[in-house]
Amino acid sequence: xxxxxxxxxxxxxxxxxxxxxxxxxxxxxxxxxxxxxxxxxxxxxxxxxxxxxxxxxxxxxxxxxxxxxxxxxxxxxxxxxxxxxxxxxxxxxxxxxxxxxxxxxxxxxxxxxxxxxxxxxxxxxxxxxxxxxxxxxxxxxxxxxxxxxxxxxxxxxxxxxxxxxxxxxxxxxxxxxxxxxxxxxxxxxxxxxxxxxxxxxxxxxxxxxxxxxxxxxxxxxxxxxxxxxxxxxxxxxxxxxxxxxxxxxxxxxxxxxxxxxxxxxxxxxxxxxxxxxxxxxxxxxxxxxxxxx
Amino acid sequence: xxxxxxxxxxxxxxxxxxxxxxxxxxxxxxxxxxxxxxxxxxxxxxxxxxxxxxxxxxxxxxxxxxxxxxxxxxxxxxxxxxxxxxxxxxxxxxxxxxxxxxxxxxxxxxxxxxxxxxxxxxxxxxxxxxxxxxxxxxxxxxxxxxxxxxxxxxxxxxxxxxxxxxxxxxxxxxxxxxxxxxxxxxxxxxxxxxxxxxxxxxxxxxxxxxxxxxxxxxxxxxxxxxxxxxxxxxxxxxxxxxxxxxxxxxxxxxxxxxxxxxxxxxxxxxxxxxxxxxxxxxxxxxxxxxxxxxxxxxxxxxxxxxxxxxxxxxxxxxxxxxxxxxxxxxxxxxxxxxxxxxxxxxxxxxxx
Lengths: 293, 352
Description:
The structure holds 2 protein chains of 2 kinds. By secondary structure, chain A is mostly helical. Chain A has 2 domains: 19-55; 59-292, MetI-like (MetI-like fold, Orthogonal Bundle), CATH 1.10.3720.10. Chain A has helices spanning 2-21, 25-55, 60-67, 70-103, 109-121, 124-135, 142-147, 156-167, 169-182, 185-192, 197-226, 229-235, 245-254, 258-292. Chain B is elongated, with a radius of gyration of 25 Å. Chain B has helices spanning 41-49, 91-101, 106-119, 135-147, 165-182, 193-199, 217-222, 227-232, 343-351; strands at residues 3-12, 15-25, 30-34, 56-61, 64-65, 76-79, 153-157, 185-190, 202-207, 210-215, 237-239, 256-259, 264-268, 280-289, 293-300, 303-310, 321-326, 328-333, 336-341. Helix content of chain B is 26%, strand content 33%. Chain B is built from 9 helices and 19 strands.
């Protein structure tokens, strides 16, 4: 823990060194900062301003109407529902997977770690298609699903499934390095004194991983809300039923309803801003806590 | 016997960490498990603790086979090499942890923890976190924490390895005193022979997964039973061929001839040497100031010996010819060892 703090100090000194040693670097510095700022303005700030101005173009009343529209409300609800499911399922899965990978020796461990990363490398559209093939009409298990009244494709479970799939590396990926760094000594010490598995997790391991876990949850939630590709394939675009916010925006845009499309987008922007704030707070608290211990 | 290991084997893949290990320990003794790194001493400790399971053999504590008893139920205190203090708990909470998980009466926890913190001399540090303590203080906390639930056995894995030399010396005597006072049966692992000799009541020497020898420090040091033990203690020198040194009996076929520093006497030409006629000449190769003494090496018959001279003795210089007399030699064959005395010593006793 002290190492990371030390590392920061060193790197700060390091950059100072470069500035002093390489004279005439002021121009380079300004150029690099300028480029970053211009890039960010074009890529991020301008679109954001556009979203907000476009959505308020016809006045606040119109904006409010688009935002409180029945379809929009249902999209918000579904998006939040899918996000909550993704976060809960992936928290459980992430904890289990990270624990297994860092605390046990077994065959195929490397394969498991690689597979956990798969959703990051596979295009979400393909993920969606895979689920359509696995759970859709042409699938071998479809009769079984139908018999039990389970609808996956073009239904809410499919959307949740797709969201879980694309977000499942986020939490375990945050936890694995932390669990590896803390090692098993403290856990063994606690076990020697008679603590059970759950007590060890709650009192010994959890304090170490809680900020990493929370950070993973934030990333997972952010990704879940914005997911488009896999969800798009599985949704079937049934308005008011299987349409999430990003899909709703696409539909409105496709219908040439630009103002409502921007208005709905602004909801996602608000969510994104909330997540950014939460993330910064989590990062800040995590850092402060780390330096204390 | 309080703790007994019977024919214990443990393999990690192809690596034999414990190879038919058997030994027994009396109640209340402080035992040093001594061996080079990779000799399997930590594995033995972890098996006694229940953190590793032996592949075969029995581990018996207080007359009961504990192979299938989980670590948490063995009543053993364990001090980890890294101390493994709970980083997110204060000193007080660290020491109290064992009592809390065992659902001890709330009223007894605080006094017991205070008592232990006082015992290890850390009063006033109760509310500190481990990161705010020095290495020696952390070790004391680890010690107090392991003792809190009143264990019958205390195991310590390289308890002094992570502490700087000066504090280590203090802690050694402190730990020995503390354990003697408490009377808890203790086993500590170390690779440092000086530490084992100084702290332990009994030493068990391990090498490549086997027990080489067990006994009191004096016994193990003076009467090595195996080739490994004879070479492990002290700064030993190996002789190319001991026949080149005068007045040693022939012992027949052998692998190595080992000489401990106290087996040799090196004198200047103008100094008295009782067995001068049996001494061999050597040349001083290197002289080094070591603070309160001078260390020098002498090359003699192809072997290199290291010896000391006090500061008040006449100094030796590089290139000087000196007399080297060897009292005795450990001669090894396979894993057998024999002590061969210089026959000049015997003639002397005959004359008297």
